[in-house]
Amino acid sequence: MLHGMADEALDGHTPLLGAVQETMLVTLHARATAGDADAARLVAAIDYDFARFERHAGPTAVFHVLRSNAMDEWTRRFLAERPHGTVVELGAGLSTRGDRLDNGTAHWCYVDLPDAAEFRRALLPDGERRRTITGSVLDPGWADEVAAEPGPYLFLAEGVLVYLDPVDVRRALSIVATRFPGCRIALDTYGEWIIAKPRGPLAGMAADLVWSCEDPKALEEWDLGLTLRESWPLSRPDWAVRRGLSRRTRAVLAGINTFVPRKMTNTRVNLFSVDAAD
């Protein structure tokens, strides 16, 4: 159960969110339809028309879940190596990753804009090793609060940077790289075709997709000390993620890889390391 909360404590919450922040509900709904019990409880508790996403509960939902599962896998690996470290979710939304993966010793920081942070705290209160931090990924102020938690650090930017222009993407990553040398950061990237023609529930949202990235290795040239460690398209997931997929999901991915042009599926998940200070 979410943070030990009773179901009745979740009832009747209406989201009053900005355009980008509202997209957190797409990912939440996708996880709920994929069988995430915590996400399903949140969906049931939020006063929102989730039915608008139902017709996209096929491939689009699969991609959202695969993206989340990839971040889960990298989080598991990090905690296996650094069980007392800190996982930082940038633009955290209503992520339930801390409930799924907490090992009893890790620390969790959830950074988000004021309206999203307030909504998260109402549904997922902070705890002894969990903190919701109010701030923009473009404002270095949040880093001071994260730095108060024990390192090393894993940063997750899931479904966040795509809403920023390239200059701001670089600025956000610069804050992480400058303040937390030696950390790792996982993020998703999208090809130009996807940015130009959003599909599924995102096509009906007010937020605009902005940052396109055909090749995530190009970020190594930004002089931020980033090194690409892992990268793979969501339509061809890593074996550790693939082994947990249902037969139906594998069939959906096989169809996508067979019949859909690669430019239309150039959505990737990527894990970078940041050079440690000399």
What do you see in this structure?
There is one protein chain. By secondary structure, the protein is an alpha/beta fold. The chain has one domain (66-274): Vaccinia Virus protein VP39 (Rossmann fold, 3-Layer(aba) Sandwich). Helices cover 37% and strands 16% of the residues. It is built from 11 helices and 7 strands. The protein has helices at residues 19-22, 24-33, 37-45, 59-81, 97-101, 114-123, 141-147, 166-179, 192-196, 239-242, 247-259, and strands spanning 86-90, 107-112, 130-134, 153-157, 184-190, 226-233, 267-274. A 7-stranded mixed sheet has the order 3-2-1-4-5-7-6, with helices on both faces. Helix 6 (114-123) links the parallel strand 2 and strand 3. Helix 2 (24-33) packs across helix 3. The protein is globular. The chain starts with 18 loop residues before the first helix and ends with a strand. The mean pLDDT is 90.
SSE topology:
Blueprint: H1 19-22, H2 24-33, H3 37-45, H4 59-81, E1 86-90, H5 97-101, E2 107-112, H6 114-123, E3 130-134, H7 141-147, E4 153-157, H8 166-179, E5 184-190, H9 192-196, E6 226-233, H10 239-242, H11 247-259, E7 267-274
Parallel strand pairs: 1-2, 1-4, 2-3, 4-5
Antiparallel strand pairs: 5-7, 6-7
Organism: Dactylosporangium darangshiense
Protein name: Class I SAM-dependent methyltransferase
GO molecular function: methyltransferase activity
